[in-house]
Structure formats: structure tokens, C-alpha cells
């Protein structure tokens, strides 16, 4: 009984997390590498490319 109740609570919590994630907006392209590491790495490969793509997607601003 305890195991079944625990499994049901876990299933519910996981489903709530999935629903929250699916309803959340997609992150901006320029934020792609944010929070990837505990300490920001200034020369993260791809950061400049992601910024250029984001700028291009916004009409070159």
C-alpha cells in the first residue's frame, strides 16, 4: 500500500512538472548557454554564433 501510494504521488508530481514545462515559453536563443555551468565560461563555444543568430532573427538589431 505504501509503495503504491508513493508511486502515485511521484507520478502526479512528475506529470505536474511536465505540464508546467510544456506550458512555459521557449527560451530566447541568446539565452541558450545561460546556466549551462555553475560558473559562467566567457568563451563558451557557440555563444557568439547564438548571439549572431538571435540578432539576425530580430531583424539585424
Automatic annotation (TrEMBL):
SUPFAM superfamilies the UniProt entry points to: Thiamin diphosphate-binding fold (THDP-binding) (SSF52518)
InterPro entries: THDP-binding (IPR029061)
Name this protein carries in UniProt: Pyruvate dehydrogenase (Acetyl-transferring) E1 component subunit alpha
